Amino acid sequence: MIKITGAVKKTIEAEELSNYIGKTITIHGSIYKIRMMSGFAFVIIRTKRSLEQCIYSNEYTEYDIANLKEHMCVNLVGEVVSDERSKKGYEIRIKTVDILSHAEEETPVVINNKEVAASLETILDYRPITLRNEKERAIFKIQEGICIAVREFLHKNLFTEIHSPKIVYAGAEGGSNIFKLDYFGTEAYLAQSPQVYKQMMVGVYERVFEIGAVYRAEKHDTSRHLNEYTGIDFEMGYIESFTEIMEMETKMLQAIMEYLNKNYQSEITLLKVNLPVVDEIPAIRFTEAKELVSKTYNREIKDMGDFEPEEERLLCNIIKKKTGSDFVFVTHYPSEKRPFYAMEEPGNPEFTESFDLLFRGIEVTTGGQRVHNYKEQVAKMLKRNMNPEQFESYLMIHKYGMPPHGGLGIGLERFTMCLLERSNVRETTLFPRDMHRLVP
Amino acid sequence: MIKITGAVKKTIEAEELSNYIGKTITIHGSIYKIRMMSGFAFVIIRTKRSLEQCIYSNEYTEYDIANLKEHMCVNLVGEVVSDERSKKGYEIRIKTVDILSHAEEETPVVINNKEVAASLETILDYRPITLRNEKERAIFKIQEGICIAVREFLHKNLFTEIHSPKIVYAGAEGGSNIFKLDYFGTEAYLAQSPQVYKQMMVGVYERVFEIGAVYRAEKHDTSRHLNEYTGIDFEMGYIESFTEIMEMETKMLQAIMEYLNKNYQSEITLLKVNLPVVDEIPAIRFTEAKELVSKTYNREIKDMGDFEPEEERLLCNIIKKKTGSDFVFVTHYPSEKRPFYAMEEPGNPEFTESFDLLFRGIEVTTGGQRVHNYKEQVAKMLKRNMNPEQFESYLMIHKYGMPPHGGLGIGLERFTMCLLERSNVRETTLFPRDMHRLVP
User: Fold this and answer.
1) Do B45 and B13 contact (CB within 8 A), yes or no?
2) Do A365 and A356 contact (CB within 8 A), yes or no?
């Protein structure tokens, strides 16, 4: 019997190399690129998060560079030498290299240039290796940063994180846009949102959140829809008004930008990310927003029930010009377009205590206050020809006492798309799922 | 247009009440219990995380207690008065109560006693309200703590968190235990693990992890299997041996226990959690473990290829007696029972560089080193009558250079079950999914 004590091997990270000037160290990584110069070579090592430029010269070593090939995984022994010409203040002079593994063939797409010069389709087809490109992978470090910031913020604000099931017995949002599966002979569905579960959990912990998969079987084939995405959902009890949810989201956005600014500078610089200033976010009623766009751009309003994507884009333009804000809340959406659990505006039941958040032209959040009174919720269901008996376990929360509450859902990949000013959500989705893509 | 500035309303939390002695404050929550005494009453308010005992007496207020009923959600105005008889050092004297909502009827199960005195089936049937019981909800606060500790630990150890798709084109582990769904006319599956994706991402970030849903269509109807559960998966590159994965897990377990001990004392006390000491964890080869159990308990070995659950339990007994450890690593499982990507023991191909972690009698982790060489992986697939062409996108990582790597998967709910010494994993699953349960 041997004993495992938690003695994790310490290796030198790229980020601490500047502490080792004058020393011979070992770093590990993948050979990203070899650039042969006259009399020497640059050997660029891709580590967890950075590219490290090493110098090969037969002045420094007897090791034969002919052994090295791009995409090999290696342990590299080198001397860290102070060098003012280098951006990092040092260079690594290669002494010897221990080859751990190698590529069988040339990559089908060149992945070690500044950008992957290929179509989005090709980039996605070869995702497992195109993600090795420094810019491609930086996108998902930023996405990681968003999630860390969200969790840190929500924990600090006393939200409890939950894991709700994705195999469900009925679709919360209803409709046909739902994936069906055979569950031991019963028909089951993939959750379109954690809506019912997060409401249930508000009755337990008052404030809850979840970051998890969301499924929409929509036959949309657009640049901003996915059939599986990561939802950031939070829900909070004891609110006096749905503006409290918008205040919480605004504060969360401020926390996200601050966190990224502090901890993801290398990726921000590499991707030239234009972090938005989240000082104050204007909020405008849906009807006024429709009219504002119509008037400003002399456009006919075709559907008073919802926005066209073009209207969202134009509204953001107006707001940006007027206030400088990259964000705008649109409030009080029409009741007929909002789900059965949406709370109606007091005295104005055609509208709801709800909002969307638009970010650089695109909707990234939907939220609002929910009905918490049992009789009111049952009545609203009946009015919509829904059968309350089918929602028995959901209605339990209303029946046995629920505080006034509300919450929101944010699409992580779409939010990342807007943050990075990309034109297709697939660019900011690790392994996208759409009508035509199930691989890899 | 109004402006949203992130001005989140500050309310007084139960945890800070002791700072308000002598002051009149407002707290909000659900009335958990009303206990009428002679001449006064205890009104217990359930807040986000605690129960607060308030005193009603007509000496202190003209408010009529007849207005109050259990399960109402309220804003309660009271005076915080120092009181040495109280455990918390103060009591709250009710001045007035603002009722926000009420229960329509008596709850079908009594939820406001120390325990919910009902069968597990009933507790689960009424999950949305039985979770309001202080002990039931404490379980999932502990579970939250485990996740926070895991993330904090893995981030500190430079793992990048990823979100991989759960709708997949083929089962990584193969077999028939897989949920099928119709994906726009194509057959798709629900992921049995993030295995292929976390391996792909090791080629990108070196160290990655995911906490996400895992699906197993197993027709098991046992106390420790679920059909949907939360997997904690990590995967790390540039390892020299699979013992490094066990060292990392051991250090992570140490971090979890430390975190819970520091931040979840109220739940630990309430649930009488016996936190294990994770000092050093013994590791024993599978074959030796089988023989040890057989010899110690004079049991016949029926299957040299795997453990029976009873053998796992007995092995843990032996280890506990011998070393005091609640955990034991079992290493070098037979190749025939491990998946196609498991690395074989050098010179001993019937066994693998793999391990399970047993915790108080039950397997909570499976891990090991993976094949990283392309030719070796293809050969191993062919030997198993698998068609490498069906794994083209997976094999890309091997073909274009992968470091030696390995990782593990932990079932969050099962781990929680063992930590809390419960006998059924459904007790520690928020909304369990099994062959017979899809609701709520």
Assistant:
1) no
2) yes
CA distance B393 to A437: 13
CB contact under 8 A, A250 and B104: no
Q: Which long-range contacts (CB under 8 A, 24 or more apart) does A273-276 make?
A: A273/A142, A273/A419, A273/A420, A274/A421, A275/A419, A276/A326, A276/A327, A276/A359, A276/A360, A276/A419
pLDDT for residue B220: 84
Classified as helix, coil or strand, B196 is helix
Distance, CA of B328 to CA of B308 (rounded, Å): 16
pLDDT of residue A170: 73
DSSP secondary-structure letter at B35? E
Residues of A in contact with B16 (CB under 8 A): none
B74 vs B94: CA distance, rounded Å? 12
Lowest mean pLDDT among A136-140, A174-178, B63-67, B141-145: A174-178
pLDDT grade for B86, boundaries at 50, 70 and 90? confident
> Mind listing the domains of chain B with CATH numbers?
14-101 (2.40.50.140), 134-428 (3.30.930.10)
Low-confidence ranges of chain A (pLDDT < 70): 171-175
- Contact B8/A251 with Cβ under 8 angstroms? yes
Nearest-neighbour CA in chain A from B206: distance (Å): 6
Residues of B in contact with A190 (CB under 8 A): 167, 181
* Structural tokens at position A338: 């909002």
Nearest to A182 among B129, B180, B375 (CB): B180
Note whether B149 and A400 are within 8 A (CB).
Answer: no
Nearest to residue A334, comparing CAs of A368, A364, A371, A296?
A368
- Asked if residues B146 and B415 have their Cβ atoms less than 8 Å apart, the reply is yes
Examine residue B440 and say whether the peptide bond preceding it is cis (omega within 30 degrees of 0): yes
The Cα–Cα gap between B255 and B422 comes to 22
- Mutate which of A204, A359, A428 to disrupt the B interface (most B C-beta within 10 Å)? A204
| Residue B368, beta-bridge partner list | B354, B407
pLDDT score for B383:
96
Distance separating alpha carbons of residues B294 and A352, to the nearest angstrom: 68
pLDDT at A86: 87
Lookup: tokens for B75: 């804003």
Closest listed residue to residue B140, CA positions, set B430, B352, B402: B430
pLDDT score recorded for residue A173: 56
CA B414 distance to own-chain centroid: 7
Backbone phi, psi, residue A353, to 5°: -80, 65
Burial B64-87 (b: 16+ CB within 10 A, else e): ebeebebbbbbbbbbbbeebeeee
Task: For A375-436, give the DSSP string.
Answer: HHHHHHHHHTT--GGGGHHHHHHHHT---SEEEEEEEHHHHHHHHTT-S-GGGG-SS--BTT
Q: What angle do CA B146, B222, A197 make, to 5 degrees?
A: 50
Q: Quick check: helix, strand or coil at residue B30?
A: strand
Q: What is the mean pLDDT of chain B?
A: 96
Return the percentage of chain B with pLDDT > 90, whole number: 96
B172 band by pLDDT with thresholds 50, 70 and 90:
low
Residue B65 DSSP class:
G
* Cα A302 from Cα A317, distance rounded (Å): 20
Q: Are B153 and B211 in contact (CB under 8 A)?
A: no
Partner A contacted by B176 (CB < 8 A): no
Give the nearest chain A residue to B280 (CA atoms): A5
This complex has an ipTM of 0.97
pLDDT in tens, B189-215: 999 999 999 999 999 999 999 999 999
**B190 contact A CB<8A:** yes
Q: Which residues on chain B are in Cβ contact (under 8 Å) with A372?
A: 101
